Amino acid sequence: MEPFTVTKTDDTTQLGLVASMDLRAAEPLLHSLHEIMAQGGKVVIDAAPVERLSTPCVQILLSAAQHMEQHGISFVVKSPSDAFVSAFDDLGLFSFLMKWPVQT
């Protein structure tokens, strides 16, 4: 699995997702999000490269989004790919995704 890219600026941390967000990506995704959320500041999740998004990764993203919302951490999903959106739709979770701020 190719590693996630993490780019930090003054008050924003961007997490670049990878093309294959399969089961092997789930644990590294969880750890990356924990580290990023602990740093504080705005979180940008770059979903443009995603070609496949597994159910475990969707669950982790949902959990992270809920945590950020509850703790007042600003986040945005940047350029979600069709595969990213379809994964949420296929699982009946499209309405949750549509509540998240999206940057194109």
Write structural notes for this entry.
The protein is of the alpha/beta class and 104 residues long. The protein has one domain: 2-Layer Sandwich (Transcription Regulator spoIIAA), CATH 3.30.750.24. 45% of the residues lie in helices and 23% in strands. It contains four helices and seven strands; from the N terminus they run βββαββαβααβ. It has a five-stranded mixed beta sheet, with helices on one face. Strands 3-5 form a two-stranded parallel ribbon. α1 runs parallel beside α2. The protein is globular. The relative contact order is 0.18. The model has no long low-confidence stretch (mean pLDDT 95).
Question: Keywords for this structure?
Answer:
45% helix; globular; alpha/beta; 4 helices; 104 residues; Transcription Regulator spoIIAA; five-stranded mixed β-sheet
Q: In angstroms, what separates the terminal alpha carbons?
A: 26 Å
CATH class: Alpha Beta
Order of helices and strands, N to C? EEEHEEHEHHE
Structural class by SSE content: alpha/beta
**Mind telling me the CATH superfamily name?**
STAS domain
Strand content: 15-25%
What ranges have pLDDT less than 50 throughout 5 or more consecutive residues?
none
